[in-house]
Amino acid sequence: MNAIIFGPPGSGKGTYASILEKKLGIVKVSTGDIVREEIEKNTELGKRMKDYHDKGELVPDDIVIEVLKKRISEPDYAERGFILDGYPRTIPQAEALSKITKIDVIINLNVPDWIIIERLSNRRTCRECEAIFNVKYVKPKIEGVCDKCGGELFQREDDKPEVIRERIRVYQEQTRPVLEYYKGKIPFAEFVCDSPDIPPEVNVEIILGKLKKMGFL
Ligand code: AMP
Predict the structure, then answer these.
(1) Is 8 in the pocket of ligand 1 (CB under 6 A)?
(2) Which of 7, 88, 191, 205 has the highest CB neighbour count under 10 A?
């Protein structure tokens, strides 16, 4: 199964995609993780992306499309199927994707703005393995330390309040229209989240139930 997990920043895409990756044996492809990796390693690509990333803006389409093409053409991805997290975010990205591969289903996360802000402003990310925690809702066992690998937890540059507002604006303006593009082309598994403190594993079970009902599992 090739899936896109779609939703605003802070809707839980990354967390749910990681759980689905393990449960279903498919590969998670997160363009946000790839962007951060390149920036952290200070590669040529990373240098071209850093300013956009830190301001909460989208990295230009040509760069992201190139990066994604390289990843999903690796044999592992075609064999196991994948879940795209954070891609596509613009119509040209969606059009480019349709030329590379076939998508079976869109998991669409519907989350109100207040939950997004609550989640993002309290989010902490592991510097080593990119695992996601939340100082209010998904606390690590030891403050500042990743439960999974012992790495240092930090607040992403783009999880600061003024950048969060910009990311939500960018989502509404550039990314929401992607949903319209897919309507009628690809089936949607709709998920509604109306409370910030339901454990991610519980929400993922609901998503899995929908995918089963739709015949994907
Ligand atoms: P995320 O972790 O998915 O919220 O992504 C973090 C940041 O990486 C975004 O705010 C963008 O600057 C950049 N980014 C990730 N995915 C994309 C994409 N598909 N297109 C453009 N920029 C992206």
Answers:
(1) no
(2) 88
Ligand 1 atom closest to Cα of 13?
3
* Helix ranges restricted to H, 7-112: 13-24, 31-40, 44-55, 61-72, 75-80, 91-100
Planar angle of CA 78, 83, 87, nearest 5 degrees: 105
Q: Convert the pLDDT of each residue in 149-167 to its tens digit.
A: 999 999 999 999 889 999 9
DSSP state of 106: E
| Virtual torsion, Cα 187, 56, 72, 147, nearest 10 deg | -90
User: Please, which residues bridge with residue 82 across strands?
Assistant: 27
89 in catalytic set:
yes
User: Does ligand 1 have an atom closer than 6 angstroms to the CB of 89?
Assistant: yes
In order of 18, 77, 82, 140, 215, the CA distances from 58 in angstroms are: 22, 25, 22, 30, 34
- pLDDT by residue (tens digit) across 201-216? 999 999 999 999 999 9
Is 13 a known active-site residue?
yes
Q: Exactly one of 28, 89, 119, 124 is catalytic; which is it?
A: 89
**Which parts of 81-155 fold into alpha helices (H)?**
91-100, 113-121
pTM, to two decimals = 0.92
Is the Cβ atom of 64 under 6 angstroms away from ligand 1? yes
First to last CA, the chain: 8
Strands 188-192 vs 105-110: parallel, antiparallel or unpaired: parallel
Mark whether 165 is an active-site residue.
no
